[in-house]
Amino acid sequence: MNAAVLVKDGSNTTITGGDITSDAKGSNGVFSYGGNGGQNGSSGDGTTVTISDTKIVTTGDGSGGIMTTGGGVTKASNLDVTTSGQSSAAIRTDRGGGSVTVDGGTYTSNGLGSPAIYSTADISVSNATLTSNLSEGVCIEGLNSIKLENCDLTANNTKQNGNATFLDTIMIYQSMSGDANSGTSSFSMSGGSITSKSGHVFHVTNTDAVITLNNVTIQNEDSNNILLSVCADGWSGGSNIATLDATSQKLSGLVKVGNDSTLTMNLSSNSNFEGTIDGNISNASGISVSTEVGNVSVTLDDTSTWTLTADSYVTSFHGNAQNIISNGHTLYVSGTALIGTK
To answer: What top-level branch of life does the organism fall under (predicted)?
Structure first.
């Protein structure tokens, strides 16, 4: 363990104001270590960091801004965090997990493999600005979660890292490295915005994931306009399964579900989706990953609509066909054209 400020052994430490700077390799800005020896799912020893109104800058590789592992607890508010090294998420967690709560502030990462948030823990962030200038905006690994409320997330993932063969803004996966237990990953966001400058907005691979969106403004600036991909990538040993629950949500773009993958998509409370669903997927190098769509179930409540932008393919559809605006295209359900669309 290395950090400019290391808190452990059950300590309750409060930091208010000031500047914290680290330029060494593997030296996090502020590190809350809960003492569980990296045993995922085990409780920590009560170690808690409460930090507010502080500027944190790290420049070395493996040097997160605020780091939580071993069951530690971090409570942060109104921080100004900037990291520049590789594997140096601004809000960082690792083996053994813990709990992280952030309210307000600005969190910026600039290095390869350095999202604004990397979750092997339960992380809640509200009223914050999150920016990743090279990597994914956020990553969730395995049985862990990220909850965003009224945050503005921007990512420009232009370089692949490690086993990744795709570029994306929100990556949900399982590496099988032991850093996170396997199970259902959870990403939820209410209010705020996502600006995806490069790659897919959402990418799910080698795990079971639930994505919950409520009134989020999504701006996809990538020319391929892929909203979500659920498919194989550079990891193995798990399944590619995603559920997308959208409430009062506007969605647009292409949804790609690989032939070995599963998607359940639920739209409710005046949500609308303008786009297509199919299984033609190529990775960032242009190599084909899938040509056939996997198992896809779509449900629309009576207040929600889907406007097709090309022929689309699902396994099952639940809802009123009148809520499908065909726009001159066809929705195929298990190979049969759906009758009664507008």
So the answer is: Bacteria
Helix (H) or strand (E) segment spanning residue 230: strand 226-230
Q: Cα–Cα distance between 16 and 22 in angstroms, integer? A: 18
Max intra-chain CA distance, the chain: 65
Please say whether the beta carbons of 196 and 222 come within 8 A: yes
Residue 74's SS3 state is strand
Contact present, 132 and 115 (Cβ < 8 Å):
yes
Residue-wise pLDDT for 199-238, tens only, equals 999 999 999 999 999 999 999 999 999 999 999 999 999 9
CA distance 139 to 87: 12
Task: Residue 139: count other Cβ atoms within 10 Å of its Cβ.
Answer: 29
- Of 297, 173, 316, 170, give the one whose Cα is nearest residue 245: 297
**Spatial distance between the Cα atoms of 217 and 241, rounded to a whole number of angstroms:** 24
Burial of 90 (0-12, 13-18, 19+ CB in 10 A): buried
Tokens of 197: 């400058």
Q: How far apart are CA 204 and CA 211, in angstroms?
A: 10
Amino acid at 122: D
Find tokens 């242009």 and name the residue.
Answer: 286
Assigned token pair, 271 = 């949500």
Alpha carbon distance 36, 188 (integer Å): 27
**pTM exceeds 0.70 for this model:** yes
Q: How far is 296 from 311, CA to CA, in rounded Å?
A: 14
**Cross-strand partners of 298:** 265, 317
Mapped onto helix, strand or coil, the DSSP state of residue 322 is helix
Judge whether 100 and 69 are in contact, CB under 8 Å. Answer: no
Distance from chain centroid for Cα 72 = 22
Chain segment 51-83, per-residue pLDDT in tens: 999 999 999 999 999 999 999 999 999 999 999
